[in-house]
Amino acid sequence: MDPEAPKTLLITLTGKDRPGVTAAVFDRLAQAGVEVLDIEQIVLRRRLVLGVLVTAPHDWKRLSAQVERAADELQMQVEVERGVGDNRVRAVGRSHVTVIGSPLRASAMAAIAGRIADSGANIDRMERMARYPVTAIDLHVSGIAPERLRVMLAKEAASQGVDVAVQPANLLRRGMRLIVMDVDSTLVQGEVIEMLAAHAGVEAEVARVTEAAMRGELDFAESLHHRVALLAGVPASALDEVYRDLVLAPGARTMVRTLRRLGYRFALVSGGFSQITDRLARDLHIDFARANELEIVDGVLTGRIVGPVVDRAGKATALREFAAACGVSEEAVIAIGDGANDLDMLNAAGLGIAYNAKPMVRDAADTAVNVPYLDAIVYLLGISREEVEAADAAAGIVTPAPPV
Is the overall model pTM greater than 0.90, yes or no? Predict the structure, then answer.
């Protein structure tokens, strides 16, 4: 018995990708009767990297020579390493780390990878989720608790100007979930109350109070009553004009459309007004909506709210009620918001996402997305841009071609 005979062989093939490469390699392996223990293959800019870990046959040198001849015929490079152990992912502390940049610079990836290495954790796998209009890379990391890794990478992400989301690698990421979204400055651009205030000539004052409330400097309910009072006398028809002028966040329809295909449910929870959010819910096929109701008498706004205010606590209550209605746990809820009145809702969800949010909200949320594309959320859920575009194409929806 050869004392130097290896138990395994790692075969790594690199070169220009073309049809039949993988088949040719496995044909040689099949002739040797080996077992396949692990496979990794990627194609990057038409360059193939194929790694195959197999059991070593008795005449492993003959197999190595056959694989090298196959590589020569394919005009590719091959490396055969002996005695490489199986690539076992550490069971403790497994996470998906999604890095999003526009652009995503090598220096940022170096910094993120460096912090992971400093923690003693390991990057087991990397895959691209999107290259346009943002670059999104998903890292499979093991060896550190997701909570610790999230704290560690948050500071580095802020320093590098990229978004980093850390989620536990478990089945929940693949299950049906409920998405609960804020509306103003999240689902839609701008603030509805400021658009209404323009009809009363008080836009500047309302904008000032709104900004302070979103920063957490004012009690939300108190500030809302003050702002709504300034709308007294505005014709109710202004609500129709405001709705026509609404601009959805870039990627909003794509996100909702994509996740609905996968069985996700959606809810709008807003400190704004039901006269707007209910229409948005109908137009976007959103399952639930909760917001404040403006009082209207004789066709004009009275400057009052009907019923209790949907404030910071009210948003979290709505999230829990909608989760119960869907039959999902709070851990299966994703909340998205930007203001201080969203904080309880973000904390109540299994994943709270601060979307283009105020600093205090970014600091408190599980993760932050600061690129101006709401559909970047799907990359956090393991859905690639290519999958989104393929599903859209099958439905006859044409998406713009990315730059070469």
Answer: no
